[in-house]
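Continued from yesterday's entry.
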Amino acid sequence: MTPDGSAYHHGDLRAALLAEAAAMIDEAGTSSVTMRAIGRRLGVSRSAAYRHFADKSALLVAVAAAGFDRLRDRLEAVGAGAPGAGIERLRQVGEEYVRFALENPGHYRLMYGKEAVTREDRPELREAANALFDELVRIVQTHQRSGTIERRDPHLQAYVAWGAVHGLASLLIEGQILTAVDADELIRQTTSTLLDGMRAGRRPT
C-alpha cells in the first residue's frame, strides 16, 4: 500500500473506508473515528480519505446509509420466496432484523440513535432509510397477497412490526434487559407473538 492509497481502486478505497469506519464504531463508538485514524488503519494517507469524504460527518452519514442498505439486503434475502414458506419465513425476517443489530451494535446505534446526523438534512441517509422501510412494506404486502397475514394498511402493519423488532433490538444492545434471559428465545417469542396478532383468520379479541 502506498501512502496516498494508490494501491486501491477508486471504488475499493471508498468501500474500505466505510467498512473500516463501521468496524471502529462497533469497537469504540463514533468518537474513535477520525480521518487520520482510519487512514492509519488502512495504510493510506489522510488526504486519500478526504478525496472520498469531505469530513468525518460526511463519512458517518455514508456509514449509516450503508448500514440501512446492508440491513435491507439481508431482509430481502430472507424474505425471498416468502409466500411459499408462510408465516415461518415472515418470522425469520423479524429475527434477522434483531440479529443484525446484535451483530453490529455500534453501526445500528449510528443508523437510529442521536449520534446520527438528522436524516432530513441528508438525502443519502434519508433515501437509504426509506428504502429499508419500503422493503418492510413490500414483505408485508407479499404476505397479505398470499393470505398469510390480514389485509390491513400495509404501511401501518410495517410500522407495527418494525416497532416491535426495533424496540427489542434496542433493549438488547443497550443492556436494558437486566434479568437473565435466553436472547434467542426472547427473539423467537417476540416475533411469534407479533405475528400471532397479524395472522389472517385469527379470532378477534
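--- second protein ---
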Amino acid sequence: MTQLSGFLSYPFMVHALIVGLLVSVCCALLGVSLVLRRYSMIGDGLSHVGFGALAIATVAGMAPLALAIPVVVLSAFVLLRISEKSKIRADAAIALISTGALAIGVMAVSMNSGINTEISNYMFGSILALSHSDVVLSVILAVIVLLFFIFFYHRIFAVTFDETFAKATGVRAGLYNTLTAMFTALTVVLGMRMMGALLISALIIFPPLTAMRVCRTFRTVTVCSLILSLFSFTAGLLLSFLYGTPAGAGIVVTDLVFFALFSVAGAVRRRR
C-alpha cells in the first residue's frame, strides 16, 4: 500500500498513465474493426515502420516524431492501397513493408553507433521516455478518435461487416478506411514510446479478441474491448511499478490472463 500510494507521486508515472489510458482507448476502438476485417497485424507492421523511421531520425539528428508520423501514416495508406488494388494479399503486404522497414532501421543504427538507450526505448518501450508533449498529442488523438466513432458509428459498422453493401448504399467506404488507417498509424507511433515496437500491436489485438470470447454483437464487443483495454493497461502498469518489470511486458501478460479467463467463460457459456 505504501508503494501504491507513491504511484502518482512520480511525474513519469503520471505521464505514462495518461498517455497509456488514452492510447488504450484508441487501440480498443480501432482494433475491433481491424480484427473483424482481418487487419489485426497492421499494428505490428506499422510499429516496425515506425521503428525504422525513428532509428533513421535519431541517427540523422532529426526530431523523431517529425519523421516517424508522416512515414507511418504514408505506410498505412500504401498498405491500404496494396490490399485493395494489388494482387498481393493484405498479410503479405504487411510482412513485406514491416520487415523491410525494420531492416532499414537496424542497418542505419548499426552503421552509426549501434543500439543506444534511445533506440532501445523505441524497440522495447520505456515509460521514462514519455514527455508532456506526448500527453498533449495523446489527448488530441483520443478526442478525435472518440468523436470519429461516436458520429460515424453506423457507417463504421457497415464498412466493417460488408464493405460492398456499404458502398452500394452510398457510404464512402474509402474515406472511412483511410481515416481508420491514419488514426491507427498515429496511435501506433504514440504508443511505441511506452510499449515498444515489439509489443504495441498487442494493444490493438488482445482487447477485441478477448471481448469476442464472450460478446456477440459489434456494440457489446466494442464496449467490452474498451473496458478491458483500460483495465489491462492499468493493471499492467501497476505490476510494472510494483515489481520493476517493463511496462509493455506487464500489460501484455495482463492481456493474456484476461484472454484465458474470457476463453474459459465463453466455453462454459457455449456448453450451457
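The chain has a mean pLDDT of 81. The radius of gyration is 19 Å. Will compare against the first tomorrow.
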